[in-house]
Design goal:
Length: 530
C-alpha cells in the first residue's frame, strides 16, 4: 500500500488535534487578561447574570463598540464549563481555530488532496499571529476562522462542480455570524475569492442565483434584525458609535504614520512567521506545472484574491495587523497548496531543515536554562524531553524529513515545543508582572465575607473582572444610598462627592489606593458614620 493511501482522514485528524492541543491548550488560563480581553469577557459574564443578550453591557453601561457574538461565545463557554475563568473565556478562540482546521481536513476538494489540506491546517494553526490571537479572547481569531470556513467550503464545493444551495448555504451562515461579530471587513476576502475564482473559470454569471441572493438576504436581514431589536433597548448613541467604529478606519485625517508603517512592516515579517519561506512558492513555475492547467488557474485566482485583499486592507489609514486576519485562512490554504506541489527541491529542503535544527537547538538550550533557573518540576522535564526528542528526530534521518509536508509537520512540532517551554518555564514567573489580578486580591483583603462591593462608573476598566463578588455598579445620576459601605471610585470623584456632601454625612475612609498602572487613579473607600 502506498504512503498516500496509508495517510487517511483519521490520521490527519489525529495529527491536527495533537498539534492544536500542544499549541493552544498549555497554560491557556494562567496569564491574566490583557489588551481588550476583559472587554470581551465582562459583557459575557453580565449576560449570564441577567443583562441583555442583544446589547452588551460593561460596568453597568451599554457597550456599543462591537456586535455581541464574541460575548455570546464567552457566555456559552462559561456556562458549559461552569467556570468564569480566563481559561473558559479564551476557549472559544482556541476552539474556533480547531474548527477551521478540521473543516480543511474533512471537506474534500478536487483541487487539493488530503495531504495538502492537512498542511494548510498546520500552517494556519502555527502562524505567529494565529497563535497569539487563538490563545486570547479577542474577536480576531474566531472572526478569521468563521471567514475561513466560509471561504474553504465555497472553494471546495466550486471545485467539485457543486452549485445551488450546497455551494451557498453554509458560507452564508458563517459570513452572517462573522458580520455579527465585528462588521463587514471579512466580506472583502470572501467576495474577492468568489469573484476571481468564478471569473477566472468564465462562470461569473453563475453567481447570480437564488441561493446566493438568499444568502445575501440572510446576511442583511439577520444583521438588520439584530440592529432593530438592539436599538429598541439602546439609544441613538448605538448607531453613531458603531458607524464611527467602522468609518473611522478609512478617515485619512486620522492616520498615524509611525504605527501604520510599523504594522505594514510586520505583515511580511513577524506576522507570517515561521512560513515566510513558503510565500515565494506562490510564483514558482514548478508549482504551476505540477498543478496542471485547471488547478493552476484556480490557484492564481486565489492568490490574486489574497494579494488584493491584503493590499486594500493595508491601505486603510487606521490599519492594524489584526484587520488582515480574515485573509489569513486563504493565505494558509495557498501555502499548503503550493508547498505540497513544490517537490524535488533539495536546496529548499536543506535550508528549511537547517533552520529547524537551529531552532530546535536554540529551544534545547532554552529548555536547559529553564530547568536550571525556573523549574525543576515534572512540567519542566516534559518540556525539555520533548525538545530533545524533536531535535533528535530531525537530525537522525535526512531522508525521513525531506519534502515540504514533513518539514511542515516538524515546524509545527517546533511551535508545540516552544509553547510547552512557555507553559513550563515562563507562565508562572510572568505572574510577577501582572497588574490587574493583584489589585483584585488586594481589594478582597478589605471586604468582609458577605459584604457587597460597589463601583462608581467603572466604564471599560479591566480590573473589574478581578474584583471580589458580589459587586454592583453605580452609574451617573444614581444615589449612593445608605446600603453602600465599600465603594471604589476615582480620586477626582471622591473630592467632588465630598465637596457636594453626597455621602449623606458619612465619612469616606480611604482603605486602598490603586497603583499607578491603573489609569485614572482609583481608590477603595469605606463609608462610616452617619
Amino acid at each position: 500500500m502506498s504512503e498516500q493511501r496509508r495517510f487517511n482522514k483519521t490520521k490527519a485528524l489525529g495529527l491536527i488535534v495533537l498539534i492544536w492541543a500542544g499549541v493552544f491548550l498549555p497554560a491557556l488560563g494562567v496569564r491574566e487578561f490583557h489588551g481588550e480581553e476583559a472587554t470581551r469577557a465582562l459583557p459575557g459574564i453580565a449576560m449570564l447574570e441577567g443583562a441583555s443578550y442583544l446589547v452588551p453591557t460593561m460596568g453597568g453601561e451599554n457597550y456599543y463598540r462591537k456586535p455581541p457574538v464574541i460575548n455570546w461565545l464567552v457566555a456559552g463557554s462559561m456556562y458549559l464549563t461552569g467556570q468564569r475563568t480566563e481559561l473558559a473565556a479564551r476557549l472559544p478562540s482556541a476552539v474556533a481555530v480547531l474548527a477551521f482546521a478540521i473543516t480543511l481536513v474533512l471537506k474534500r476538494s478536487a483541487w487539493m488532496d488530503l495531504r495538502s489540506r492537512t498542511l494548510s491546517a498546520i500552517v494556519f494553526m502555527t502562524m505567529a499571529i494565529i497563535i497569539e490571537k487563538g490563545r486570547s479572547i479577542e474577536i480576531d481569531a474566531s472572526y478569521a476562522c468563521f471567514t475561513g470556513i466560509a471561504i474553504w467550503w465555497w472553494l471546495a464545493q466550486w471545485s467539485l462542480g457543486r452549485r445551488g444551495w450546497s455551494l451557498w448555504a453554509l458560507p452564508a451562515i458563517f459570513i452572517t455570524v462573522a458580520m455579527l461579530e465585528k462588521g463587514p471587513l471579512h466580506l472583502l476576502p470572501f467576495y474577492a475569492t468568489v469573484i476571481l475564482v468564478s471569473g477566472g473559470s468564465g462562470q461569473l454569471r453563475k453567481l447570480i442565483s437564488f441561493p446566493h441572493l438568499a444568502g445575501i438576504c440572510l446576511l442583511v436581514g439577520v444583521f438588520a434584525g439584530w440592529a432593530v431589536l438592539a436599538r429598541a433597548e439602546a439609544t441613538d448613541e448605538m448607531s453613531r458609535t458603531m458607524a464611527s467604529q467602522f468609518w473611522i478606519r478609512f478617515d485619512p485625517r486620522r492616520i498615524e504614520w509611525a504605527p501604520w508603517l510599523i504594522h505594514i512592516a510586520k505583515m511580511p515579517t513577524v506576522v507570517l512567521l515561521p512560513w515566510l519561506v513558503c510565500i515565494p512558492m506562490w510564483w514558482s513555475k514548478q508549482v504551476h506545472v505540477n498543478l496542471g492547467p485547471e488547478r493552476s488557474k484556480a490557484f492564481r485566482s486565489c492568490r490574486l484574491a489574497a494579494v488584493v485583499s491584503l493590499l486594500l486592507l493595508m491601505a486603510m489609514p487606521a490599519f492594524r495587523t489584526r484587520y488582515a486576519l480574515p485573509v489569513f485562512p486563504l493565505v494558509a490554504i495557498l501555502i499548503g497548496w503550493a508547498a505540497s506541489n513544490y517537490v524535488n527541491s533539495e536546496s529548499l529542503d536543506r535550508l528549511w531543515r537547517g533552520g529547524l535544527c537551529l531552532g530546535l537547538l536554540g529551544a534545547t538550550v532554552s529548555a536547559l536554562v529553564g530547568l536550571i533557573w525556573f523549574s525543576s518540576g515534572a512540567a519542566g522535564f516534559v518540556a525539555a524531553g520533548a525538545t530533545v526528542f524533536a531535535l533528535g528526530s530531525v537530525a537522525s534521518s535526512r531522508r525521513r524529513y525531506q519534502g515540504t509536508y514533513r518539514l511542515g509537520v516538524i515546524t509545527a512540532v517546533l511551535a508545540v515545543v516552544l509553547v510547552f517551554q512557555y507553559a513550563a518555564f515562563a507562565a508562572e514567573p510572568m505572574k510577577r508582572f501582572e497588574r490587574l489580578r493583584p489589585v483584585g486580591e488586594r481589594v478582597a483583603e478589605f471586604i468582609p465575607p458577605g459584604k457587597r462591593l460597589y463601583v462608581l462608573r467603572p466604564r471599560r476598566h479591566s480590573f473589574v473582572y478581578y474584583l471580589p463578588r458580589p459587586n454592583q455598579f453605580i452609574l451617573p445620576g444614581d444615589e449612593i444610598g445608605e446600603g453602600v459601605e465599600y465603594l471604589i471610585l476615582r480620586q477626582a470623584d471622591l473630592q467632588t462627592l465630598r465637596q457636594g456632601d453626597l455621602f449623606d454625612g458619612r465619612d469616606p475612609r480611604v482603605l486602598y489606593e490603586f497603583p499607578e498602572t491603573i489609569k485614572e487613579h482609583f481608590v477603595l473607600v469605606q463609608l462610616v458614620g452617619s
